[in-house]
Amino acid sequence: MNYYRDTWVEINLDNIAYNVKETVKLLPSKEKLFAVVKANAYGHGACAVAEAALGAGAHGLAVAFIDEALSLRKSAIAAPVLVLGASRPSDAGVAAEHHISLTVYQLEWLKQAQAYLSPEQTVKVHVKCDTGMGRLGVKTQEELKELVAFIDQSPQFIFEGLFTHFATADELDTAYFEDQLFKFTAMVESLEERPPYVHCANSAVSLRFKKAHFNAVRLGIAMYGLSPSDEIKPLLPFPLKPAFSLHTKIVHVKRMNKGEKVSYGATYEAQGDEWVATLPIGYADGWIRKLQGQEVLAAGCRVPIIGRICMDQCMIRLPYELPAGTTVTLIGRQCNEEITMDDIADRLATINYEVPCLITSRVPRVYKSKGEVLHIDNPLVR
Ligand SMILES: *Cc1c(COP(=O)(O)O)cnc(C)c1O
CA 6, CA 211: separation in Å to the nearest integer? Predict the structure, then answer.
């Protein structure tokens, strides 16, 4: 596969593997790691990340919905896959057929789903508890008991897991986390028999609170080498290695005279004689208009984006004349300078999670290991 515009995301699969391996080292041997690869692996590319994570010691994968699970199966990934979000009762058969584990939290759902399963079909289910996230899950031990009783008497459902999700595990104040953990522990202890997987740890919990691992963790953001929050960055047990970088190449360079204008609205005016370069990346690539003024790296220097960002292009001011074809790094490292995912998140007043998800599939993902390109994913010409 190839791509024909010099704008690309580089995914360092060795760094994904490193982050997974270092996390696995923190787990007792019987504890399992589920690599969270929802949202196309936070924009990194689900299949490639899944393979790297499994190769580095992940036991299974977690996604948000059935389509994402099917996409992994289509790439011949046979590892356990758990759907963390809601599914339709009418899709229980699809899950059964493809060995996809589903999240359940309503008795009515189970009753309806049963009607869509043939007598020989079985679906593995993880019961979700809502201990304070207020998103999905059973809220009481009574509800939990009812659900588990129904699952146990039904030959079509296999009680595979019990889990919950924390709302504040990435904050320094742990009071709310402790409260959620207490509620979840009580839910677990109310069961007569534990299912094979009991899990509640996202990245923050996996790396901070061993006591809250139970027997499986769900590693998302940290696998990508990004900290769950700025606050807990100093508390992380090993330095995470980011996997995602974004690059382009200058397609045009010109001298602009004092007073000449740049881009839509003619809002930028050259203050003196300036070298201005055009980059083939714009808001349709997820490099959104709010990033006007953001710095990028050219020839190892930080230079600003000037004028409005267009759909497919934007302009930067150069420190001196550079040739067309010069590589510009928008997220990542050049020489001693680095623009991190957190820098972009700060600029956009959001969290690092959102930034790689923003970069659209129009930007090809180039997968590298040991400095070599392993493969390229460009859905446009696939
Ligand atoms: C996304 C998600 C995770 C992963 O969270 P990170 O903070 O990225 O580690 C874990 N569990 C659930 C239920 C999720 O939705």
Answer: 47
141-153 and 175-189 are packed helices; what angle lies between their axes, rounded to 10 degrees? 40
Strand 337-339 versus strand 327-334 pairing type: antiparallel
Atom of ligand 1 nearest to the CA of 38: 1
Please, which residues bridge with residue 316 across strands? Answer: 277, 305
- Out of 2.40.240.50, 1.10.10.10, 3.40.50.1970, 3.20.20.10, select the CATH number for domain 13-224: 3.20.20.10
CATH of domain 244-381: 2.40.37.10
User: Which residues are marked as active site?
Assistant: 38, 264
Neighbours of 3 (CB within 10 A): 17
Domain locations along the chain:
13-224, 244-381
pLDDT in tens, 28-58: 999 999 999 999 999 999 999 999 999 999 9
205 lines ligand 1 (CB under 6 A): no
pLDDT single digits (tens) 92-113:
999 999 999 999 999 999 999 9
Residue 188: what residue type?
V
Pocket test for ligand 1, best of 218, 232, 352 (most atoms within 8 A of CB): 218
Q: How far apart are CA 258 and CA 57, in angstroms?
A: 58
> Quick one: CA torsion of 192, 198, 200, 201, rounded to 10 degrees?
150
Return the residue whose CA atom lies nearest to atom 10 of ligand 1: 202
CA separation for the pair 126, 197 (Å, rounded): 8
